[in-house]
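FORM 12-B: Structure-to-Sequence Request
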């Protein structure tokens, strides 16, 4: 793949356009279903804990598959990988649209995820190999457009479709688009790749699957089951041990499945750390705000999605602009400005009340997304720019995997804080309310008081979670001051190969 792209001075715009569309529908599909879970639960007569597997299962397969993409990208051509990925995704989408039972729907979602997991790292790798360092900001801005815009419109589109159609329409809508993208890929993707002598270490694959799968499942379950559940802490511990064994094994292999030597490059290591922190903070708004809007304020699913739409559209529009600014000014200035805005707006979200206006929520969320748009892609691109070309597949796979894991950790942490603080506030508020009651309260008064206490307690729990998110954002802001404009590091292997060739050239 790298061969075919590097042989021409013209960037692979056609390949990137096809991959962008494929990545867009895979990301859109991931968020479309979240809003539909209650409807599916009712239609298929299953419990909330069961239906949640449609989201958890998808995320788990992504987490297990993404580490192996570094190997796949080195081994196979863009054409072969993309057509395989989009074919798998299409089969899963069709199967999900006609699934008569939950078990078949779950299998279909996991098939979708196995195709989707390949597309995002593949797209990022093509962008890195197809453009010089000084032009990558603009093109990575397009990647940011997909990364943010697709998940942004997902809930709104899903809410509208569910008001007018059956939940199966969510899959029927994506199916024809996926088929068209597959056909376009068949006819237009023509790149070839020289045969590569690279074999997948099956034990590494097993270790990475247990490591990332276990940690993702453990942290994802912590919000609902609690940290003291054996199902949570056992899977996290097993995952952590497997991760240590996986890293040790990769350090001993001549051709590792996922090369942790990328962390020898300081700007990549720093960008990775900031990305982890940002992913945790980003999920706070996406997770806590819908709970506040729908549960406490009683705003409909559709209007909840519409509330987030302007901010998400702004973030999508800003991504290419931010990319151009990154090429001109570098990542440090953008990251500091963006994280300052993100921290301030997150702080204002920690001051929510029972009557915060809808307009105020839209403005705050839009401002927060504007800040986020200046951070995610510039920081990631700056880190990847320092890596030698042969490390690109490993860098992109590492970034995508860590975003999945940190997103799950962030979600679990914030939900747990919200739940625990809600219980504490409920006890305090109930005690305070009982003190102010006069005479013998009627059952109706007690019921009303309990409802008010529950709402107020949850509100305070959400505000406390946002305060923690402010702290997380501050950590990222401090780290941003250490960012330097990255230059591509010299590859020791290429230098060594060059030294071997030079004497022969001199003799000739």
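FORM 12-B RESPONSE
SEQUENCE OUT:
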């Amino acid at each position: 793949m790298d061969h075919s792209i590097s042989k021409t001075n013209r960037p692979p715009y056609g390949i990137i356009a096809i991959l962008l569309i494929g990545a867009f529908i895979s990301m859109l599909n991931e968020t479309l279903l979240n809003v539909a879970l209650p409807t599916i639960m009712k239609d298929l007569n299953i419990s909330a804990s069961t239906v949640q597997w449609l989201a958890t299962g998808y995320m788990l397969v992504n987490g297990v598959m993404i580490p192996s993409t570094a190997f796949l990208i080195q081994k196979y051509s863009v054409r072969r990988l993309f057509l395989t990925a989009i074919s798998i995704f299409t089969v899963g989408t069709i199967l999900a649209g006609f699934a008569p039972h939950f078990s078949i729907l779950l299998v279909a979602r996991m098939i979708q995820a196995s195709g989707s997991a390949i597309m995002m790292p593949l797209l990022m790798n093509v962008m890195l190999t197809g453009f010089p360092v000084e032009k990558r900001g603009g093109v990575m801005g397009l990647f940011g457009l997909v990364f943010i815009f697709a998940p942004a419109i997902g809930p709104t589109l899903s809410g509208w479709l569910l008001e007018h159609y059956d939940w199966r329409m969510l899959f029927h809508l994506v199916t024809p688009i996926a088929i068209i993208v597959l056909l376009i890929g068949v006819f237009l993707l023509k790149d070839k790749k020289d045969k590569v002598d690279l074999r997948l270490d099956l034990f590494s694959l097993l270790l990475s699957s247990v490591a990332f799968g276990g940690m993702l499942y453990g942290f994802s379950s912590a919000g609902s089951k609690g940290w003291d559940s054996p199902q949570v802490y056992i899977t996290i511990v097993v995952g952590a041990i497997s991760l240590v064994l996986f890293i040790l094994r990769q350090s001993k292999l001549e051709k590792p499945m996922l090369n942790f030597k990328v962390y020898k490059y300081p700007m990549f290591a720093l960008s990775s750390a900031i990305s982890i922190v940002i992913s945790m903070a980003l999920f706070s708004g996406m997770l806590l705000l819908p709970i506040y809007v729908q549960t406490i304020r009683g705003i409909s699913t559709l209007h909840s999605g519409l509330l987030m739409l302007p901010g998400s559209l702004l973030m999508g529009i800003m991504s290419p602009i931010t990319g151009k600014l990154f090429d001109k000014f570098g990542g440090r200035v953008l990251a500091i400005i963006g994280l300052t805005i993100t921290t301030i707006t997150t702080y204002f979200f920690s001051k929510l009340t029972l009557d915060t206006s809808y307009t105020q929520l839209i403005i705050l969320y839009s401002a927060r997304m504007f800040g986020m748009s200046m951070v995610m892609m510039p920081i990631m691109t700056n880190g990847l720019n320092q890596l030698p070309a042969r490390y690109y597949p490993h860098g992109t796979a590492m970034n995508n995997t860590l975003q999945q894991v940190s997103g799950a950790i962030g979600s679990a942490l914030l939900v747990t804080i919200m739940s625990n603080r809600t219980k504490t506030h409920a006890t305090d508020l109930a005690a305070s309310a009982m003190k102010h009651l006069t005479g013998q309260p009627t059952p109706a008064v007690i019921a009303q008081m309990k409802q008010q206490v529950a709402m107020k307690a949850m509100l305070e729990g959400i505000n406390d979670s946002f305060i923690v998110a402010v702290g997380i954002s501050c950590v990222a802001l401090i780290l941003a001051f250490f960012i330097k404009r990255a230059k591509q590091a010299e590859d020791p292997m290429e230098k060594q190969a060059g030294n071997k060739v030079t004497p022969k050239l001199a003799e000739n």
